[in-house]
Amino acid sequence: MEKLVALGAQAASSTKDVADRAETVLASLPSLQASLEVATGTGGVIEGKRVRRFVDLSTVGSHMAVRIHDVLAKRNIVQLDSPVSGGVGAPKRERSP
To answer: What DSSP designation does 85 have?
Structure first.
């Protein structure tokens, strides 16, 4: 992280610290539990003073996405479920001749 700070990035001490500084927080995490904890847990995005949007790039599935959305909505934080990969694919369509 020191190299990034030397290039002009700002280091944060916690998820809440990020959410205190930014209106939009993006997260790409390895598990459902990690996404839930980062978004809604103690010291998480939900406790940030400035945050207005949480974009979850993790593959958490629709049930967890709704759960996170509902909790964040109580603090007027919009949650966007935007998985990078692993989402449910659309059914294949046959092409018309």
So the answer is: S
